[in-house]
């Protein structure tokens, strides 16, 4: 790996905005050479595509474990979503929505309500553990692939889980930092039910309160998310990882938040491209063959689960690549270099003879 030469400002620990002393712009402005947003997302996909023999078994294993330990969303639950969409279509828009519109509403309702399954407490714990394992294994495999190694999926499962407890504690810190946003959600529901926001002055005060709480959570979690990546390194304690991540993100939060927003659009795009046709196909086939409705085949829930696991692997690699860019590595976004194949020439062979 080739690393850039760092200035003393970027290599040392940076403690800004932690006292009443003024922080000058030249003290916290940190230039980082990062590729564009599309190049960033394309690089994460390229790593998965070039190493599909590693990541495909990982996705399959996590999907299988999820089905066994947590379970799929029942087909009856998915049918309820579709029936509610049908009712909305008939009552509100008088049946003007076509199959595509109904499929889109079903997708939005399924994803936004956490439609993988209706989980109890034990299933939630298993789901969290599975996604933590996916996070750690994906980062471990990506780290070794970028280092020029040839890891196998089992290497990731055996070796990547040592910081599992540390990752859980960092995740707990992220949860605590999200409490201000949770307070906004709870108070908003209470304000709606009590008609508190109908008074313009109270609405303005609540808007200021909600904005400040949201900014506080965004400011805190922007560094802690990077801490989830830093803690994946073996032997790193949770608080040390958080401190390291804060030092890396200092002066770069806006750039990081822009990439998170772009990531959200990427995830929405993949759900629309893959899950929406699956829902549309399910509607068309079961509409043409009513016998299939009685079989209760969970086709759409299975596709939704596979896409969700795949996108979580993509998210892990996406964040890890940006983390390495903050460390000033140069070769992250072009990890796979394919040497051009030498063309066989009959003329050269004849000349040698």
What does this molecule look like?
The protein is 71% helix and 0% strand. By secondary structure, it is mainly alpha-helical. The two termini are 43 Å apart. The longest helix is centred in the last third of the chain and has 36 residues, at 253-288. The chain has 16 helices and no strands. The chain has helices at residues 8-11, 25-28, 37-50, 52-69, 75-91, 99-112, 121-146, 153-159, 164-177, 179-193, 200-230, 238-249, 253-288, 291-295, 299-326, 346-352. It has one domain (34-337).
Shape: globular
Structural class: mainly alpha
Q: How do the SSEs run, as a string of H and E?
A: HHHHHHHHHHHHHHHH
Distance from N terminus to C terminus (CA atoms, Å) equals 43 Å
What's the average pLDDT? Answer: 78
Total helices: the number is 16
Rg over alpha carbons: 24 Å
Into which percentage range does the β-strand content fall?
A: under 5%
Helical amount: over 70%
Could you list the spans in which at least 5 consecutive residues all have pLDDT below 50? 1-12, 334-341, 343-351
